[in-house]
Each structure stands twice: as structure tokens, then as C-alpha cells.
Inverse folding.
């Protein structure tokens, strides 16, 4: 049985066009953003913001009902920080520190919010207090390096980043700390 070459060519062309058409139609929704595999459509982002606002409102009510609940104060501070509402985060972390003044995590979180709100000197002072409370608190050392660097105190920043690396040589910020040290040491010379 012999195949007619004209029919085979026509069939091949039609098949190729059909497959290409299916391929294109399958990807149009992703290209246009209708189906974003990461869920980053405007509707998904709006829903995420609504969820965050609802969670924050629930935490605000919980803190209002029990203002001495350290856990909820910390969660509320973290929620404000995540939403970049730094002044409210600072206020809530301050209330948490009134309940637990030796909580280094909260102190460093408050310092970070001071930093992001442009209060670098206050952030640095808080970072120093955090390191004094727990010299082995790696994040306190790392953040203090950032605060010092922002103040142009390069020598102190290098010392802080090196202290971080002694505590966390393979930690989450190790590569960044090494890069900062390299840049800052050049600036010191």
C-alpha cells in the first residue's frame, strides 16, 4: 500500500497547524494573566490583602481584649511590620517590651522598624541593647551591622558582620554579611 505524497503533506500541514493552534490556545490564559500559575492575579492580590487586613483586625481585637497577651502583641507587631506600618509596629513592640524587656527578638524587631521609619540612631541604640542582652543573638549582630553601615560607621559595621559570621558562618545572611564586609573594609581603607 503506497501513500499519496500530496495527501500526506496536506495531512502533515493540517496536523501541525492544529497542534500549534492547541498549543497557543492553551497558553493564552497564562500570557494574558487570566491564569497565573503563581496566583499573582489582581484578584488574588486583592484577596491576600483582604486576608491580611482581616488577620490584623482580629489581632487588634485580641490585643484590645487582653492587652497583656505578649504573644498577640508580638503577632500584631509582626503584622504591622509585614504591612510596612512601622509606626504602629513600633508602638506595639514597645508595649510588648514593657511586658518582657529582655526579649531580644522583639527589641530587634522594634529596631528594624525604627530603621525603616528613618530613625537610624534609635535603631542603632536598640540594636546595641539587643546585643548587650544576648551577645550570641545572630540577627541582632547582623542588623546592628546594617544600622552602623547606614550611619557611615563602617568599622563598627564590619565588626558586627564578623560577629554575625562567627555565630552563623553558613546562616541565612552569611553571603550578604561577607559582601558587606568586603565593601565596608574597602571604604575604611
Amino acid at each position: 500500500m503506497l501513500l499519496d505524497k500530496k495527501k500526506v503533506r496536506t495531512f502533515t500541514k493540517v496536523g501541525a497547524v492544529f497542534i500549534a493552534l492547541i498549543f497557543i490556545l492553551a497558553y493564552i490564559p497564562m500570557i494574558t494573566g487570566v491564569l497565573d500559575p503563581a496566583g499573582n492575579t489582581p484578584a488574588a492580590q486583592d484577596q491576600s490583602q483582604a486576608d491580611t487586613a482581616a488577620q490584623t483586625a482580629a489581632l487588634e481585637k485580641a490585643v484590645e481584649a487582653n492587652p497583656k497577651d505578649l504573644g498577640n502583641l508580638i503577632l500584631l507587631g509582626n503584622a504591622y511590620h509585614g504591612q510596612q506600618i512601622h509606626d504602629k509596629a513600633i508602638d506595639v513592640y514597645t508595649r510588648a517590651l514593657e511586658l518582657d524587656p529582655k526579649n531580644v527578638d522583639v527589641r530587634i524587631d522594634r529596631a528594624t522598624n525604627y530603621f525603616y521609619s528613618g530613625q537610624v540612631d534609635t535603631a542603632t541604640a536598640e540594636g546595641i541593647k539587643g546585643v548587650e542582652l544576648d551577645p550570641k543573638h545572630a540577627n541582632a549582630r547582623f542588623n546592628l551591622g546594617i544600622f552602623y553601615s547606614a550611619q557611615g560607621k563602617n568599622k563598627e559595621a564590619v565588626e558586627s558582620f564578623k560577629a554575625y559570621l562567627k555565630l552563623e558562618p553558613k546562616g541565612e545572611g552569611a553571603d550578604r554579611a561577607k559582601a558587606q564586609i568586603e565593601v565596608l573594609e574597602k571604604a575604611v581603607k
The domain at 120-189 is CATH 1.25.40.10 (Serine Threonine Protein Phosphatase 5, Tetratricopeptide repeat). The chain has nine helices and no strands. The two ends are 85 Å apart (CA to CA).
